[in-house]
Amino acid sequence: EIVLTQSPGTLSLSPGERATLSCRASQSVSSNYLAWYQQKPGQAPRLLIYGASSRATGIPDRFSGSGSGTDFTLTISRLEPEDFAVYYCQQYGSSPRTFGQGTKVEIK
Amino acid sequence: QVQLVQSGAEVKKPGASVKVSCKASGYPFTAYFMHWVRQAPGQGPEWMGWIDLKSGAARYAQNFQGRVTMTRDTSITTAYMELTSLRSDDTAVYYCAREPYECINGVCYSDAFDLWGLGTMVTVSS
């Protein structure tokens, strides 16, 4: 099973600042099948990034993903008020599909 | 409208079973896999397994083997997840989520979960 470790656990930033979230895998993620999801309280997760760096339909270009192998990054270039949420990475290259424990981006 | 509509909240006693439904609309039902993911209060998501909506074949996470069954009814474009022998630590929100897939020359390629249901809260309490 691939274990995904996200850091930091919480990121305190102000609107307009840049957010950098990390996801490290315990072994190489096959074909860079790594996704990022955003979740707000009381809502289902929403797909932001798939294939490590491709934005899902309708996702603003301030969200970008990068990385390969075992180290992946989600960057939000300029935080908007609606971006304060919890972000999860997920690998879908091998079974079982696994999720990270999440990074909370909160307003400073 | 492309959506997944899940059944309503459930309260169950320990040892009971629960069956959650997920009705798909607005897209070709059998062109996707359906996954089930649960999320305990304050925790991250936990993958439970998936079902090939075309063939009905299902695969389950090791943690749920023997307790979970995923099925579907293509005539009403609905997927189901049944969990038996419920315990208090099964209290969680249960989500269905679809996965687009593509098979080329017999090899199928995975994808991320591009559409999620709103979730079904299952509470297990005596």
What does this structure look like?
Chain A is 0% helix and 49% strand. In chain A, strand 7 and strand 8 (71-76) form a beta hairpin. By secondary structure, chain A is mostly beta strands. Chain A has strands spanning 4-7, 10-13, 19-25, 34-39, 46-50, 54-55, 63-68, 71-76, 86-91, 98-99, 103-107. The mean pLDDT of chain B is 95. In chain B, a hairpin with a 5-residue loop joins strand 5 (46-52) and strand 6 (58-60). Chain B is built from no helices and 13 strands. Chain B starts with a strand and ends with a strand. With 126 residues, chain B is mainly β. In chain B, strands 2, 4, 5, 6, 9, 12 and 13 form a seven-stranded mixed beta sheet that branches. In chain B, strands 1-3-8-7 form a four-stranded antiparallel beta sheet, with no helix packed on it. A two-stranded antiparallel sheet of chain B has the order 10-11. Classes of the chains: A mainly beta (108), B mainly beta (126).
* Helix coverage percent of chain B: under 10%
The total of beta strands of chain B comes to 13
Number of strands of chain A: 11
Q: Using only CA atoms, what is the Rg of chain B?
A: 14 Å
Q: Which parts of chain A are unreliable, with pLDDT below 50 for 5 consecutive residues or more? A: none
Please give the oligomerization state of what you see.
heterodimer
**Number of alpha- plus pi-helical segments of chain A:** 0
Write the H/E string of chain A, N to C. EEEEEEEEEEE
- Tally of individual helices of chain B: 0
Q: Which term fits the overall shape of chain B?
A: globular
Largest interface: A-B, 24 and 21 residues
pLDDT under 50 segments of chain B (min length 5)?
none
Biggest sheet details of chain B = 7 strands, mixed
N→C terminal distance of chain A:
35 Å
Shape of chain A: globular
Structural class of chain B: mainly beta
Give the end-to-end Cα distance of chain B, rounded to a whole number of Å.
Answer: 39 Å
